[in-house]
Specification:
About 35% of the residues lie in helices and about 20% in strands. The protein contains 18 helices and 20 strands. A hairpin with a 5-residue loop joins strand 12 (about 230-235) and strand 13. Helix 1 (about 20-35) packs parallel to helix 2 (about 60-80), helix 7 crosses helix 8 and helix 7 (about 305-325) crosses helix 13 (about 465-475). The longest helix has 23 residues, at about 405-430.
Length: about 600
Amino acid sequence: MAQLRIALAQTNPVVGDLAANTGKLVEWTRRAAGRGAHLVVFTEMFLTGYPVEDLVLRTSFVEASIAAVDAAARRLAEEGLGETPVVVGYVDRADLAPRVGQPKGAPLNAVALLHRGRVVTRTAKHHLPNYGVFDEYRYFVRGDRLPIFRLHGVDVAIAVCEDLWQDGGPVAVAGRAGAGLLVVPNASPYEREKDDVRLELAARRAREAGCALAYANQVGGQDELVFDGDSLVVSASGELVARAARFTEELLVADLDLPEGTGRLGARDQVDAGDGTLITAERLELSSRPLEPYEPEPATIAPHLDDVAEVYAALVLGVRDYVAKNGFRSVILGLSGGIDSALTATIASDAIGPDRVHVVMMPSRYSSDHSLSDAQELVDRQGVNARTVPIGGMVDAFEKELSLTGLAAENLQARVRGMILMSLSNEHGHLVLTTGNKSELATGYSTLYGDSAGGYAPIKDVLKTLVWELARWRNAQAGVADHFLHGFAVPPIPENSITKEPSAELRPGQRDTDSLPEYDVLDRLLDDYVEKDMGSASLVAAGHDPELVARVIRLVDLAEYKRRQYPPGPKITPKNFGRDRRLPITNRWRESAR
């Protein structure tokens, strides 16, 4: 057996910022070398950030990426780090003649191995995902090579993200080649309870390939996607060796005892990948001699986060990175005293600090006394910046010129509030946070150009029942400070905001249940219809009330045009209202229970 110390750089790149990402690569390689790492693995498309979407169709961008990876190799050597091999993702181009159906320029979701000032080998993702938030058939062509490099006597193979999730392909070829270690750069977005799925998958693939497996995953927010890290190392038997914390950058270092390479395949053997394709296994040697025995570092396994904690961390990270990466200094939102705006304000305070959070209380003639007092109590508990702008006179001015009744009059109040927030945003440069939850978005229970106006929507993928769970959980963490909790000395959300019956307060005595079923009933139905794509008959068969099924489906389907105009927000479920779920607005299909 041979020893190898591997470092997984669980880092937070910025899409399109090749210079900063290269600087981070050098910095983290230096950290890894300082800890005696023999190999450093960065994440999928690290140099370009991920996902770059249609940037990859620009020749200038692809050329800049290719130049960046060559420059990164030279810079590592110039800064005395050239002896430490580095695996890093970027965008490359395949040497293919243009053809119909192929992405323009034949881009590759590529990985390079950098050593001694140059790129010693390149490979590309073989399995291209085309589901959920992924559109990789639109952007990339398939890779058909598997590099296997010998490092200190160990044969190391490289696969990329989706190559682990699909049968056959690079994992199968790594097994046939007798690799001792498979390293896998990833950009795998967060979804609830995905960490257990990842571990089981990595363990299964390690057993299939008969080698240890190192899974390096990106961390950070990118528009509506949140990457949670959760990098890990498993042995050839599937046993967990090391695991990084979630939702934070970390250099995960692990010492492995690995079999010495046998050279089972030739230098350029074509191998049946078990998925209907052939992959060329390419061998190269960096160092053939095993290391002298050394004392291994103790492995670290990060503690498990419970379900509500991980959701809250994802929301905080999504807000923090959207603010930072888009150059905002502060955020602003309307604070009503209700649970949705209270939770949104708290997430923002945890993300960027309460001194950078601005709230506006905008009472109308229908605002209750307790709503005003609950909003003020949150301000006092958190120390956010607050101002009060009564909207009664503004609404009266509109009503003098327009004859509005019923729903139109109610919506006018929401639109005046939206106008105030957007105007203050323009004046002071704040990012406007909308406060709507997924239950409201699903059923259209919001006002277009009113409470839906804004730049980012922290809880748009959070059902109402989960909003309450998150609020109670957050209050229970009072006094705790870490990388996603501010450390408020008292519970940051007023208890009355959590316990009182929800209301938009746009007319006297209004309650959400005037327009919607009880949220625990509604959310179960929405989960089946939106997340699981169940039709009417299936919903009724699952035990939902037939009349309620028909009513809720109609509400959801008719609100599609509103959702298209809603701001982005962090994705926490397998099917958010955004990249995951793409339904036509103009659509006459209607579900039938028969």
